[in-house]
TrEMBL record:
Region: Disordered, residue numbers: 255-275
Organism: Acidovorax bellezanensis
Protein name as it appears in the record: Cell division protein FtsQ
Protein topology in the membrane: Single-pass type II membrane protein
Gene3D superfamilies to which the protein is assigned, alphabetical: Cell division protein FtsQ/DivIB, membrane protein fhac
Amino acid sequence: MKRSLPAPIDVKLMNVTASVLLLGCAALVLAAVSWWVVRHPAFSIGRIIVEGEMLHNNAVTLRANVAPSLTGNFFTIDLRAARETFEQVPWVREAKVRREYPNSLRVELHEHVAEAFWGPDTGAEMVNSFGEVFEANIGELERDGIPRLQGPEGTSQQVLQVYRMLAPALAPLNLEIDELVLNDRGSWKARLANDAQVELGGGTVEQVLQRVQRFARTLGAVTAQYQRRADALQSVDLRYEDGYALRLQGVSTVQGKALPPNRPKPQPKPAAARR
């Protein structure tokens, strides 16, 4: 039996060199093809398709404003950076961007749904339906019918939640909350659409809601005693444990004090008040 002899060293070196050269040529060809693809105009982003329900933006304006900020072509564009660019557009809450061969981007946009203004009157911030604070062009909106919420930083979701709980409680009285404020001490205060001031006090959300519900159940009986309607309310203080104090338009008070706390069970007639 014959035994095969190992290949000489120079033959091995030649084989290795040939393999390296072949791989090098393949890499050069791949690089050349990649360079051609990156720079060929056929793969430039030629179309941006914008989808989604938009009330404050339109597809034509979005394409005109965002397209100059996009870099790269169909293969090299950074989709994450493109998404962030679209999300910087006013009123845009979320953008989803994907490629469509050979040279298009399809963008699905979701706008903020404004629930309320946020912060002081001089600000340009709003709260969306998720309780998130965002900046908007306030000039695009009418102030009427949109409440203003205020609170310490990071409390927008809580303030919106409390507003959503209190508004239905006052609805049977045809009283609307125009402004709801949570101060740094955890106490709540509201201003109604008729400019009436409401001291809601502190405590848990459930405690605040219970005070408002008690007030809503009994206000009709109180105002009827003075031949007034609920919209005659000027101010009310709900920070009493077993009642509340209020002022009614056209009803005078003794020594400038509000009508004494109303206690529904039993319900006394405010002796200090006179018409």
